[in-house]
Amino acid sequence: MSGFITGEMYQECENCEFCGSVMLIFHSEGITCSECSRVARCVTHPQPTIMSYPPDYRNLQSCEQVIKEITNRIGISKHIIDRCFVLLSDVKQIFKSKSIGDLVLVCMFQAYREKRVFISFYRLREYYPTSSSISILNDLFHKLTSSNVFILTPPYTYSEITEGLVSYFRIPNKFINLIEPSYIEISKTLKYDPIPIKLACAIQMMSIKNMFCGCVGVCEVFHFLCVKKSTVLIKIRKFKKLLTSKYDSK
Question: What is the b/e burial string over 58-89, where b = at least 16 CB atoms within 10 angstroms of the residue's CB?
Answer without folding.
Answer: eebeebbebbeebbeeebbbbebbebbbebbb
